């Protein structure tokens, strides 16, 4: 029995002059990546769907960031159809999870703008789990962590290319599973040391983690 669907959306921007009159939609989804977790927080299935934007386009920045180009989406379904495909795949009653509330907000806005809000199940958005917020609560921090930062802090090795929807969904699922399994989250020992040393000013990065380590590079 599936309990959670961890989702990651990749998006492109809609230039102001191409937005529909009266629409506040500033971005469009171009990829839906999802990892399913069962009651033991094990990944049991995955979903990956490219989406053809209707107003925006994939510029060089988004192509470089996500690896998604125009050729990947030109024959893909538009968002209303892509959402229907996703809903046919998604087990009924599954709780949605994402890193931050950006994805749930985007689905709300895009479904309203494109006329498929009635296809978003009642309660889905209201019961959506923000794993970024859960992580911050677990480590007793108020600031927002990127997925990459949080995975390093939680001592989880990232797999695949960042900013690919399916890859990010699977990595988020691994982190979310650890958050749910461990009453007290076990952190990377070096991160734990840095956190104690810099409680009030910690801005986490790989550079911060290893700044105080002295590595002997001499040959012996």
How would you describe this structure to a colleague?
With 220 residues, this protein is α/β, with parallel strands linked by helices. The protein has a 5-stranded mixed sheet, with helices on both faces. The protein starts with a strand and ends in a 10-residue tail after the last helix.
What labels describe this entry?
single chain; 220 residues; alpha/beta; five-stranded mixed beta sheet; 9 helices; 5 strands; 36% helix; globular
> How is the biggest beta sheet arranged?
5 strands, mixed
Shape: globular
Number of helices: 9
Task: Name the structural class.
Answer: alpha/beta
How helical, in percent, are the residues?
A: 25-40%
Q: How many DSSP E strands?
A: 5
Radius of gyration: 19 Å
Query: Beta-sheet strand percentage?
Result: 15-25%
What topology emerges from the helices and strands here?
Elements: E1 2-13, E2 27-38, E3 43-50, H1 60-66, H2 70-73, H3 79-89, E4 95-98, H4 102-113, E5 129-130, H5 131-138, H6 147-153, H7 165-181, H8 189-197, H9 206-210
Parallel strand pairs: 1-4, 4-5
Antiparallel strand pairs: 1-2, 2-3
Helix pairs in contact: 5-7
Short synopsis of the structure:
By secondary structure, this protein is an alpha/beta fold. It has helices spanning 60-66, 70-73, 79-89, 102-113, 131-138, 147-153, 165-181, 189-197, 206-210; strands at 2-13, 27-38, 43-50, 95-98, 129-130.
């Amino acid at each position: 029995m599936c309990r959670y669907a961890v989702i990651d959306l990749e998006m492109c921007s809609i230039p102001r002059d191409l937005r529909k009159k009266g629409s506040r939609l500033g971005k469009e989804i171009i990829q839906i990546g999802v990892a399913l977790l069962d009651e033991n927080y094990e990944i049991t299935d995955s979903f990956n769907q490219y989406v053809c934007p209707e107003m925006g386009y994939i510029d060089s920045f988004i192509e470089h960031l996500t690896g998604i180009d125009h050729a990947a989406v030109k024959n893909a379904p538009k968002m209303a159809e892509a959402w229907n495909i996703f809903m046919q795949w998604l087990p009924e009653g599954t709780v949605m999870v994402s890193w931050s509330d950006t994805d749930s907000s985007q689905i709300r806005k895009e479904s309203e703008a494109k006329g498929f809000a009635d296809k978003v199940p009642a309660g889905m958005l209201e019961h959506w789990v923000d794993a970024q917020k859960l992580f911050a609560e677990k480590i007793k921090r108020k600031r927002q962590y990127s997925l990459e930062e949080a995975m390093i802090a939680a001592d989880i090795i990232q797999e695949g290319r960042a900013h690919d929807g399916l890859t990010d969904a699977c990595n988020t699922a691994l982190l979310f599973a650890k958050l749910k399994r461990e009453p007290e989250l076990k952190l990377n020992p070096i991160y734990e040391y840095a956190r104690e040393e810099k409680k009030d000013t910690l801005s986490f990065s790989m550079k911060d983690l290893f700044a105080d380590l002295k590595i002997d590079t001499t040959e012996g």
